[in-house]
Amino acid sequence: MSPAESRPADEPRASAGAWWRGLGSEAGLVFGRRRNQLLLVGLALVPLVIGVAVRVFSNGMRGGGTDLVSRIAGSGLFLAAVAFVVTMPLFLPLVISVVAGDALAGDAQLGTVRYALIVPVSRTKWLAMKAFALFAFTCAGVAAVLVVAVVAGFALFGVHSMTLLSGDVIGVGAGLGRLVAMAGYVAASLTGLCAVGLFVSSLTEVPIAAMAGTAIVPAVCTVLLAVPQLAPIHPGLLTYHWLDLTTFLFAQPDLALLRNGLLLQAAWVVVFGSLAWARLASQDVSA
């Protein structure tokens, strides 16, 4: 068999190899930036600071309060739940906005985007690599909060069963399962923001502007949620279901609520992912 005859069979393997090499390269760029590493460290410090503060000022409480923070003293597992409630509205979106805003605008500023548009690689695949690397960083940020919160919670308050908000008591293993599910929902709830960030990042060559533009979106949505007169549009806002993560702290999580939250994020991903693709697909190499 001649080399020419064997080439078609080798093309899918070569294409798959190029995909994984490209994805690894993008992930390396995202995780290799010192700024992004510091952002992960900052996220990990949030549950540690909360845990130490509760430990110092708990005054011997054993978690008998009705609010989430006071329950931390009774079970270190609640530290992770509180950490997610605290980081979800502000810290996680801010970190994702910084990384997402730099995804395409950073390449445009450095001039490397021109080379990426010239090489014989599908722009759709290139955008997908950016999206996967960004989502991997999102998952890393969520995992950092979860792991540090669980370790700090056990170290500061001991390994105890978890009393849910509904009054039911579950074991440590079941509690960890709840927290992992909560972390998965948090990561999935940030996919819409990732798509927004990629689109905004495709509009400018100034990363700081893209970061600010991305961060403004959840902030505006939060403000709109506080206006009762805008109730008809609330279910479609990006942040509407973000704090539904607390449903995992009840004996029977509201699956319908979680499904609606995931469907909302999927809609934002489709809309803004399509806009980012259209922007990138129509972009001229001289732009």
Strand content: under 5%
Overall structural domain count: 1
Estimated radius of gyration:
22 Å
Largest sheet: 2 strands, antiparallel
Outline type = globular
Q: Low-confidence stretches at least 5 residues in length (pLDDT < 50)?
A: 1-7
Order of helices and strands: HHHHHHHEEHHHH
Q: Oligomer, anyone?
A: single chain
Mean pLDDT over all positions: 86
End-to-end separation in angstroms reads: 45 Å
Number of strands: 2
Number of helices: 11
Placed side by side, the strands forming the largest sheet appear as: 1-2
Helix content range = over 70%
Counting helices, strands and paired strands, the structural category is: mainly alpha
Tell me about this structure:
This protein has 287 residues and is mainly α. The chain has one domain (20-281). The protein has helices at residues 3-32, 34-57, 68-71, 77-87, 91-110, 112-118, 123-157, 172-189, 191-201, 207-225, 255-281; strands at 162-163, 169-170. It has a two-stranded antiparallel sheet with strand order 1-2. Strand 1 (162-163) and strand 2 (169-170) form a beta hairpin. It is globular. The model is unreliable at 1-7 (pLDDT under 50).
Observed structural traits:
11 helices; 287 residues; two-stranded antiparallel sheet; mainly alpha; disordered N terminus
